[in-house]
Design a protein that fits this description.
alpha+beta; 18 helices
């Protein structure tokens, strides 16, 4: 009894030790494992537990393909990206066996809140990611299949945000980083790109891509279409380095773009698919009209003839830099450099250009002449007919709306200008356009040996357009300046200087001059002039015949001083004064010309300082129009003298001579106000007496032309 009681009180372990209880092999193994587990250090026991849990998770994911994680995955990814991510169809997320397998049908990722529509969509995305590399922050896709995907790459209007920078909607723009894709297949993909700053939109279709072992066997072709500044274009090309592109490296590509007859070919490198900084290209562009090319930038240029240019293009510090620019437009050459940028979101063009030979027909459109008329009719195309009268002032309107949209700074130099009877060379132009204020200052050129300098301000900031002209001719030898009009250079010592200051309203050259006010003055200091027709201009028949018989027709005319000046009011320029003092005569002028209808109505008369037996003392008329001037030698005054002579001849033949006698009472001019370019009311004789023979300016014909 006591023995049984003791057995009852023995523990199970004691009985096993005493051999009173016998256990099987399975039980002994379990007891051994439990003993070892209890003897294992607790960190190892925790690790083993984690591995067991992970295995259980892996097993569950592998069996279920992780489909139950669809909604949690959408929620977590949306928070990380800062965008809504949705999967419309089947979703799988599991380890197979170690790589992370992701499959999603109908995947969409929303754009940032400042854009509508999806940033990314795909009918199917099926990929395997390296799990271990992912733990260390490396995105290595071992295999990717992408079908019917679309990516929306857009910049904000201010250029500070883009659609591919995730996280906070206000996060500064970052480059698009491409993952490392080892093998894959991409079919039916499209990329949309938009940059409102350039008014550029393009849709690009990418040809199917197959990659294996981190390499794409062939180049990747692409085609596209789009609009820039409202103008359509198409493009096609090839990505020559798809493997580097997939790894996030340089993108070597060639492409061809066309818009109508305008064509562009490019061959170069983008550092990253969506990163412009550091881009380098060789460009070739050609077309029928440069203005059509610049319309893509919203830049206003006059029409030109056919052009072809090559250039090196680099994108550095947010600037497109066109270096080593060379080419031709029409019959003229052009070389230099140009930079296009968007400081403060406003287009700025800075250029330094040179032309060795500029054909006159190529520059004519830039001052407002119609290019089609010039090409069809040559120099005659400069002239149009209005109400039966010829017009030569250019009347092409300034594209006010376009020049308000961009700014520009230009240095332009031309060595020679080619064209019939065009004595212009060495043109230098500095142009500054700032928010609708256009300044051509200075604009210099050589013409017939004279140096012209001008400042032209065109204020298009309001309506109407206001234009200010200040054109100056520096002191220039008359013999050199007027040689093509018969003046002999040898022996002509006189000089000439001139200035025109006008202000007018209108968006064409013709309108601005037709409404202008200001003054025009041509000043001749003391000197001599040799010219075959100078005595005919004075109509001193006695002196002319005397010199003809003595064979001294080319004796110089001694000029003391001279002023040919006009006061311009409402587009009509009235003589104020025309006064030339020579040793033998005082040449006076009256009349006017009109910028309104381009009519000429001027008259010159020479009064002798010495007695002359045969003198017409009659004006020479300059009439007609700018485009068709006419010299009237036989004036009404001369006819009246002739009639008077015939009347006197009825009494006695000798009496007829008195009708042509010049008593030589012309008063010499005080040269001080003449050389100062003063108005008629300030002119004096050498004795200081105000002149009463100048200042009668506007005749009725020019008044009628208003």
């Amino acid at each position: 009894m006591n023995q049984e009681f003791k057995r009852a009180r023995l523990s199970k372990a004691d009985m096993q030790a005493a051999g009173l209880v016998h256990e099987g092999p399975a039980r002994r193994a379990w007891r051994w494992s439990a003993t070892r587990w209890s003897a294992t250090p607790w960190p190892l026991r925790v690790l083993a537990g984690l591995l067991l849990v992970l295995f259980a998770i892996w097993l569950v994911l592998f069996i279920t393909k992780g489909r139950f994680l669809k909604h949690p995955a959408e929620s977590i990814a949306s928070r990380v990206l800062g965008r809504d991510l949705r999967v419309a169809g089947d979703f799988q997320l599991y380890f197979a066996p170690i790589d992370l397998k992701i499959r999603a049908e109908g995947l969409t990722i929303a754009n940032p809140r400042w854009l509508k529509g999806p940033f990314f969509s795909a009918r199917l995305i099926d990929g395997r990611l390296s799990t271990f590399r992912l733990l260390f922050g490396q995105r290595v896709i071992k295999r990717l299949e992408l079908d019917r995907s679309a990516v929306d790459l857009q910049w904000s209007r201010n250029g500070r945000l883009n659609s591919w920078t995730f996280g906070s909607p206000d996060a500064p723009a970052k480059p698009l980083e491409m993952p490392d894709i080892r093998t894959g297949k991409v079919t039916g993909s499209r990329v949309h790109f938009s940059d409102p700053r350039l008014a550029l939109m393009a849709d690009i279709d990418i040809a199917s891509v197959a990659a294996a072992n981190s390499r794409v066997a062939e180049t990747i072709g692409f085609t596209g279409r789009g609009r820039m500044r409202g103008l359509p274009f198409t493009l096609d090309g090839r990505l020559l380095t798809p493997n580097a592109s997939l790894a996030g490296g340089e993108n070597k590509l060639v492409f061809h773009a066309r818009s109508g007859a305008t064509q562009l070919d490019a061959d170069g490198v983008l550092r990253r698919a969506t990163q412009l900084d550091g881009a380098h290209f060789q460009l070739k562009v050609r077309g029928p009209d440069i203005s059509q090319l610049f319309d893509f930038l919203g830049v206003a240029l006059p029409a030109t003839r056919t052009y072809s240019f090559t250039s090196q293009l680099d994108h550095i510090d947010n600037e497109w830099r066109f270096q080593k620019l060379t080419g031709r437009y029409g019959q003229s050459d052009l070389a230099g450099k140009m930079t296009i940028s968007l400081p403060k979101d406003r287009l700025l063009i800075v250029a330094d250009l040179k032309t060795d030979r500029l054909h006159m027909i190529d520059i004519a459109p830039f001052v407002g002449y119609d290019l089609d008329r010039l090409e069809a009719r040559g120099a005659a195309g400069l002239i149009t007919t209005v109400n039966g009268a010829p017009r030569i002032l250019p009347d092409a309107p300034l594209r006010v709306d376009a020049i308000r949209r961009f700014d520009a700074k230009l240095d332009y130099a031309v060595r020679t200008v080619e064209g019939r009877n065009i004595p212009i060379s060495n043109i230098g132009l500095k142009l500054d356009l700032d928010k609708g204020m256009l300044k051509l200052s200075p604009l210099t050129f050589m013409m017939a040996g004279g140096l012209f300098a001008s400042d032209v301000d065109i204020d298009a900031r309001g309506a109407p357009v206001r234009t200010s002209y200040d054109i100056r001719l520096s002191p220039t030898p008359m013999g050199k300046l007027l040689a093509r009009w018969g003046v002999e250079e040898s022996g002509t010592s006189g000089t000439i200087r001139a200035r025109a200051q006008l202000k007018g309203l209108g968006d064409t050259v013709r309108e601005s001059l037709a409404t202008s006010n200001g003054r025009i003055a041509v000043i001749m200091p003391k000197g001599t002039m040799w010219a075959r027709n100078i005595q005919l201009a004075e109509l001193d028949i006695g002196v002319f015949i005397q010199k003809m018989f003595e064979k001294r027709l080319k004796d110089p005319v001694e000029i003391n001083c001279g002023l040919i000046a006009f006061t311009v009011r409402d587009g009509v320029a009235s003589a104020d004064p025309i006064l030339i003092d020579t040793t033998k005569n005082v040449i006076l002028g009256r009349g006017a010309f009109s910028f309104r209808d381009e009519r000429l109505d001027l008259a010159l008369r020479a009064d002798g300082k010495k007695f002359s037996l045969f003198s017409g003392q009659s004006p020479i008329g300059l009439a007609g129009y700018f485009a068709a001037p006419r010299v009237d030698v036989i004036s009404p005054e001369l006819l009246a003298r002739g009639a008077a002579g015939l009347g006197l001849a009825a009494l006695t033949p000798l009496a007829a001579v008195f009708a042509f006698v010049d008593v030589g009472d012309a008063k010499s001019a005080d040269c001080s106000p003449v050389l100062a370019g003063a108005q008629a009311r300030a002119q004096r004789t050498t004795s200081g007496t105000p002149r009463d023979d100048v200042g009668r300016g506007t005749p009725s014909k020019s008044e009628g032309g208003r």
